[in-house]
Amino acid sequence: MRGATRAQWAVGAVALALAATACGGGSSADSAGVVSASWGDPQNPLEPANTNEVQGGKVLEMLFRGLKRYNPKTGAAEDVVAEKIETSDSQNYTVTLKDGWTFSNGEKVTAKSFVDAWNYGALLTNKQKNAPFFQYIDGFDEVHPESGTPTAKTMSGLTVKDDKTFTVKLNQKFSSWPDTLGYSAFMPLPQTFYTDHDAWVKKPVGNGPYVVDSYVKGSALKMRKWEKYPGTDPAQNGGIDLRVYTDNNTAYTDLQAGNLDLVDDVPAAQLKNVKADLGDRYINQPAGIIQTLTFPMYDKNWNGPGKEKVRRGISMAIDRAQITDEIFQKTRTPATDWTSPVLKEEGGYKAGLCGDACEFNADEAKKLIKEGGGLPGGKMTISYNADTGSHKDWVDAICNSINNSLDSDNACVGAPVGTFADFRNKITVRRMTGPFRAGWQMDYPLIQNFLQPLYYTNASSNDGKFSNAEFDKLVNEANASTDIGDAVSKFQDAEKILADQMPAVPLWYQNGSGGYSDRISDVALNPFSVPVYQQIKVG
Prior knowledge:
It is a single chain. The chain is 27% helix and 20% strand. The chain is built from 17 helices and 19 strands. It has helices at 54-63, 111-122, 140-143, 192-195, 197-202, 248-257, 274-278, 300-303, 307-316, 320-326, 344-347, 362-371, 392-405, 420-428, 447-455, 469-480, 484-501, and strands at residues 34-39, 68-70, 77-79, 82-87, 92-97, 158-162, 165-169, 210-216, 220-225, 239-244, 262-263, 282-294, 332-334, 380-385, 412-417, 436-441, 504-516, 520-521, 537-538. The strands form 6 sheets. Strands 11, 12, 13, 16 and 17 form a 5-stranded antiparallel sheet that branches. A 4-stranded mixed sheet has the order 1-10-9-8, covered by helices on one side. The protein starts with 33 loop residues before the first strand and ends with a strand.
């Protein structure tokens, strides 16, 4: 989710008088109590096919259940609403649903709930950011043409057979396609989404373990346990209050003061002290997250002849090991490819695949940048959102490393953008004039998810607008392969193109980090670094 460049965190503490929270006077032994957690306003409305960043993704994980869900411990794609997904050729699939699933408004979850939602998400005129996730379904090019207007409103590859069954025809073989179906874009939607869309957006209705109680932008989104939830993973608490913070240092302070139950991003400035502060209530574990610097490939200053040498030189000018040790206290690991170690070797992670382009070498960096014509205008900026308080230190450290490598005091400087929303909006409208911070939190645990959404031509989260025909070809071939080993090999061949062209600089793999109060228990992060909210207990 969410990936996409995923926003992490977000606003001064909001004092909420909640009877169920510790600061509101509720009983700490009340097992039906409400958990308060740090959060940030999402960029887009909470529509499944329109949410591709972390903050909105957290809500969708609580609000919806799809055909599959990723195991909170292993990340494996497991059937939830799906009874079975069958194919004999990796191109034509039959999906059969389980009995008993409903939305929280009482409407049954049927095959039509999925097919209508997918068609809505794919249709160009609905302007859903996750539309490219449907691109392998036959007929996608008619509902979402590269140019012009749609010639159809529904994809020909989707057919409802009966309430419990629908078929999917893909436009090419895609053997791991079923494993993508736990992603939020593929969630079902009730008919009220279409009949009263404005009301639904204000108060979304799903089929997950929680319902939306209220949302005040800039303040808090309150989720409450759905007592009639039909799934096997009901909420173990009375609800989750997601409180908006613009500074995760403030959230951490509130946690220490007993005014907040859960922080799922420990600020870099607190990492030296967090173990002493929280003891066993501090969580630090590997996650499917990578941080990068992405170049605006739509800007000729960064994508002209020879500029690949400049981009590679910048990568080699960054001392990742020193920064991860000093700034992040070893909660990050220097990246040597574009995926994540959580995939493991069999899943596509290959240490060192980036080669010397990801190794610190000041002399070679200076040489490459000079050969490529130098930094545009003689200097560069690194843009980041300033509202979390967690990016300035490492951006400054990167610039110091680049400046030292180039024997310059001002070759690189950080360029803060006020809020995450403003930052993302500048990226969306292609107004970046230099590299910018980007983070990717996997949507599903496949190597494909670390490459295609970010670097495939016109992909949903290709914020730098990189385009390479050979890269696209290799990704298509990998997706079509029915042999996992062959598919992984082709994806890694595609990665080698990234190492040569460097449209984004891999910085480090990120651990999931979090801390919680002594008021709650059973707190864990899933492989996506998102709290497993429904299993948290109060008292």
